[in-house]
Amino acid sequence: MLQAATATSTEQFSRALGMRLADALIRKLGQAPNACWLFCSPAQGMAEMLGGIHDALGTSNIVGCTTDGEISSDGLSSGSVVLGGIASDQVEFTTAVARDLSRRQAAAGADLAAQLAPGTRYVQVFSDGLTGDGCALLAGMASELGDQIPIAGGTAGDSGRFEQTWQFFGSQVLTDAAVAIGFSGDFYLGTGIRSGWTPIGLPKKVTRASGSTLFELNGEPALRVFERFLGRHAAKLPSIGVEYPLGLLGQWGDVGEQDYFLLRATMSVNREDGSITFAGEVPEGAMVSLTCGDTASILEAAQKAAQLALADLGGRSPAVIFCYSCMARKIVLGRRTLEEIERIRTVIGPEVPILGFYSYGEYCRIRCGSPSYLHNETATVSVIGV
Q1: Strand blocks (E) in 160-212
Q2: Three-state DSSP state, 10
């Protein structure tokens, strides 16, 4: 048995609201959940609300983070809170936390993995979207878990303000942290990802970079290359950059899928040294291309991700959908963002509960058996089946 449900509210955050959300979730499940996910906009009263949820549910298996938009069975919401839960007698959960993420990225990942149960078969992780290096975090986790344990989730947001994000662990509200939840026991997993962006123009070589900061393309300041490409729109950098992410090509971004490659979204620009900082690592020496997408291709990609996840499930009955999608997709889709969620649900089943958020970066494997990566501008779908 595995049951899932979500409860949503746009009320002011408070301890009383947390207790009401917990009660609503218990009613929908018919029992107390074994594990819970909390996604919300950053707002006053988060700690009190989480305390109310924790006390009312009677479990410390609570993880989550602040977001750029919340996804639930009620659809898409902003400035809201979503509490999701799973009740099951065949799946066990363990949670983990790593603090001071900015000072020990890979070590934090190793710490997270070491706290999970030995039989863990699937992990979801939520990390600080501003202080964390998702690539290093995954490398640290893989050093303990190996490459074959699928990892999904996303990096926390703060409603597009890019000031500070928060992570939730039990009854604690943290920042500069990563939290994880491990699944073990008897269940099936299907995953799918797609972006909808395609390369344009000639490939360029990263001639100077450090971590997620790109200094030069073909020996020229990166910002100058972007400005030439964007023309009159260049003044809108870095915000306009999310519509034209950098694609990693060949051995640096070719992940074995004909119509998918790794993307990197712009986070900030330095007009003095001409550098651009992205939401993920840009390796020096890599071949890259600017990319573009439109509403139609982005929505089709979400639908494809859902189809891949359902196929990966191998005919098993889907019990819950986790969707972690990029805030850049939300920017491009605008008022049509809800269609992304609706397309995913139409493919997998409109009656299947869905839970997730719009993130500053997404974690997921490319396909069954592949390592997990940090993605940008990508829709990731994970389906738990029984």
Answers
A1: 167-169, 172-174, 178-185, 188-194, 198-199, 204-210
A2: coil
Q: What is the pLDDT of residues 210-238, one digit of tens each?
A: 999 999 999 999 999 999 988 888 888 88
Quick count: other Cβ atoms within 10 Å of Cβ 130? 21
pLDDT at 132 over 90: no
Helix (H, G, I), strand (E, B) or coil at 204: strand
Choose among 14, 15, 32: nearest CA to 23: 32
Query: What is the band of 249 on the pLDDT scale with cuts at 50, 70, 90?
Result: confident
The three-state secondary structure class of 250 is helix
CB 179 within 8 A of CB 125: yes
Please state whether the predicted TM-score (pTM) of the whole model is above 0.85: yes
Angle between the 337-348 and 295-312 helix axes, to the nearest 10 degrees?
Answer: 30
Q: Per residue in 137-161, is it b (16+ CB within 10 Å) or e — as a string?
A: bbbbbbeebeeebbbbbbbbbbbee
Q: Read out DSSP for 133-161?
A: -HHHHHHHHHHHH-SSS-EEEEE---TT-
- Residue 262 DSSP SS3: coil
Residue 235 contacts residue 223 (beta carbons within 8 Å): no
